[in-house]
């Protein structure tokens, strides 16, 4: 089967299309014929070696955390799945899905609703599961009635996070470029700060929760807008400097571990149309280099999806 591998950390030059053996199904697993895969910021950061210490890769490595496809084979004791079922899926950590076929635990797949396309089905699992977990009460003490700032609201993570936060009862502010202001308002953001026109630290204050998807300067400046006792919940965006004690707030990095618990929750939102997957760009599988280059600019709207 065809797969895209990397044999070392580096630029997009390390991405190579290869022929490899198809994976074998074991107990409690299903094999999926992949129809589409999403490309996430984590992919290019892993490729570039930004997480080589915390999440080292074993080479040759296949990147990619989520996608959609059709169940091709069902292992013993693998739940409800049947050959031919259309699914969205998430990969266990350490395995990738830039490939024509993948094998996953049966709990890492959910049914694709009829009303969405395979590209949309591929676009939401990782970003939605990440945001769902980041917004859990253990990280935020609950969002109902609170004011949350979600950074990069027009991006792959932010565009889904806005919808989930609204679903959980929060009042949402977000940052984005001026060109994307109407787009993020359409997703449910009440206050929009155009970062290319104003400084969010001057526009916002007394925020209950900040959802930091970016790290770096944005992370450091975000402490300034939190109210005393507020909380910053972060995903794996580097670098992160914990200044919480200095500002009298708390900060946690959400651990995206309970895929089997969170994935059905967000899939239910997609099924009842309270969460609409956001696909910004669709490219052929062999244009993975272009997809990574687009993501590295930091200005992609919605998700980038590769179609097989």
Automatic annotation (TrEMBL):
A molecular function GO annotation: zinc ion binding
One Pfam family cited in the UniProt record for this chain: ADH_zinc_N_2
Entry keywords, A to Z: Oxidoreductase
CDD domains linked: MDR_like_2
InterPro entries registered for this protein in UniProt: ADH-like_N (IPR013154), ER (IPR020843), GroES-like_sf (IPR011032), NAD(P)-bd_dom_sf (IPR036291), Quin_OxRdtase/zeta-crystal_CS (IPR002364), YIM1/Zinc_Alcohol_DH_Fams (IPR050700)
Domain Enoyl reductase (ER): 10-306
Keyword Heme: no
Keyword Oxidoreductase: yes
PANTHER family: ALCOHOL DEHYDROGENASE RELATED, RETICULON-4-INTERACTING PROTEIN 1, MITOCHONDRIAL
The protein's name: Enoyl reductase (ER) domain-containing protein
Provenance organism: marine metagenome
């Amino acid at each position: 089967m065809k797969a895209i591998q990397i044999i070392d950390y580096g630029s997009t030059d390390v991405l190579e299309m290869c022929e490899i053996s198809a994976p074998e199904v074991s107990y409690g697993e299903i094999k999926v014929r992949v129809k589409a895969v999403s490309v996430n910021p984590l992919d290019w950061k892993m490729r570039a070696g930004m997480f080589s210490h915390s999440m080292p890769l074993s080479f040759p490595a296949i990147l990619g955390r989520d996608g959609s496809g059709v169940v091709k084979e069902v292992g013993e004791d693998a739940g409800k799945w049947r050959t031919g079922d259309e699914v969205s899926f998430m990969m266990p950590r350490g395995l990738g899905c830039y490939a024509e076929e993948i094998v996953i635990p049966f709990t890492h797949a959910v049914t694709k609703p009829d009303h969405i396309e395979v590209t949309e089905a591929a676009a939401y699992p990782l970003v939605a599961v990440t945001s769902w977990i980041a917004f859990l009460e253990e990280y935020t003490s609950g969002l109902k009635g609170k004011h949350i700032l979600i950074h990069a609201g027009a991006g792959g993570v932010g565009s889904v996070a806005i919808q989930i936060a609204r679903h959980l009862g929060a009042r949402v502010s977000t940052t984005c470029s001026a060109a994307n202001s109407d787009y993020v308002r359409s997703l449910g953001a009440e206050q929009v700060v155009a970062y290319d026109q104003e400084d969010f630290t001057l526009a916002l204050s007394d925020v209950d929760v900040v959802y930091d998807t970016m790290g770096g300067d944005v992370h450091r400046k975000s402490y300034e807008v939190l109210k005393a006792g507020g909380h910053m919940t972060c995903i794996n965006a580097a670098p992160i400097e914990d200044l919480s004690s200095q500002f009298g707030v708390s900060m946690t990095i959400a651990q995206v571990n309970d895929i089997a618990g969170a994935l059905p929750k967000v899939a239910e939102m997609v099924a009842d149309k309270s969460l609409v997957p956001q696909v910004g760009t669709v490219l052929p599988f062999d244009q993975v280099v272009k997809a990574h280059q687009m993501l590295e600019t930091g200005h992609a709207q919605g998700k980038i999806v590769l179609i097989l």
